[in-house]
């Protein structure tokens, strides 16, 4: 879960969006891609409080083909996934806050006073839980596919390095 959190880091996500707009100037080697060093330098140039480890984690997750370079497409897709993860975390937090409020008002159980204030919440909670579960399942699957590609690329890079 810590990988998801660092990948969806709000500050890092904003910096990546800004770098997307200035992709060509961030590409100091002018080869049409960003290396991890170029991404780190450019990201920390925008926000020097970003940790190199968080940038490296995001880079590995966005480099879906594992070639050690980010294309504009990989950067765009990575930003989109980070945004989806952030949105899901916000929704989950809002739902948890609402559930906690309902427990406080209802004394920790679904009492008749809660029903009189809010109506029958069992249906609403069920559909909300179902929506959240579906959303988290989709995002988790996308995240896992990205992480699997990054792991495979890292393994391939390590294998190539040891055979040379």
Entry keywords:
164 residues, mainly alpha, Recoverin, domain 1, 8 helices, 2% strand, globular
Task: Characterize the structure shown.
The chain is an all-alpha fold and 164 residues long. The chain has a single domain (1-164), classed as EF-hand (Recoverin, domain 1), CATH 1.10.238.10. It contains 8 helices and 2 strands, in the order αααβααβααα. It has a two-stranded antiparallel ribbon. It is globular and about 60 Å long. It starts with a helix and ends with a helix. Residues 1-8 and 109-123 have low confidence and may be disordered.
Taking strands numbered 1, 2, ... along the chain, how are they ordered across the largest sheet? 1-2
The SS-based structural class is: mainly alpha
In percent, how helical is the residue content?
over 70%
CATH fold call: Recoverin, domain 1
The largest β sheet comes out as: 2 strands, antiparallel
Unreliable parts: 1-8, 109-123
Write down the secondary-structure element order. Answer: HHHEHHEHHH
The average pLDDT is 74
Amino- and carboxy-terminal Cα gap? 35 Å
Tally of individual helices: 8
Into how many domains do the coordinates divide? 1
Please tell me what the overall shape is. Answer: globular
The CATH superfamily turns out to be: EF-hand
Radius of gyration: 21 Å
- How large a portion of the residues is in β-strands, by DSSP E? under 5%
Level-2 CATH architecture: Orthogonal Bundle
- Strand tally is 2
């Amino acid at each position: 879960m810590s990988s998801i959190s660092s990948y969806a880091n709000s500050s890092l996500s904003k910096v990546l969006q800004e770098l997307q707009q200035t992709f060509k100037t961030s590409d100091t080697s002018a080869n049409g891609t960003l290396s991890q060093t170029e991404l780190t330098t450019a990201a920390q140039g925008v926000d020097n409080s970003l940790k190199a480890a968080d940038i490296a984690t995001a880079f590995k997750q966005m480099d879906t083909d594992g070639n050690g370079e980010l294309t504009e497409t990989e950067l765009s897709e990575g930003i989109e996934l980070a945004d989806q993860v952030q949105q899901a975390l916000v929704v989950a937090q809002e739902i948890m806050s609402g559930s906690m409020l309902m427990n406080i008002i209802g004394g920790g159980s679904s009492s008749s006073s809660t029903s009189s204030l809010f109506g029958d919440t069992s249906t609403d909670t069920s559909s909300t839980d179902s929506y959240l579960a579906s959303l988290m399942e989709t995002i988790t699957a996308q995240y896992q596919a990205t992480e699997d590609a990054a792991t495979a690329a890292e393994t391939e890079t390590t294998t190539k390095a040891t055979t040379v």
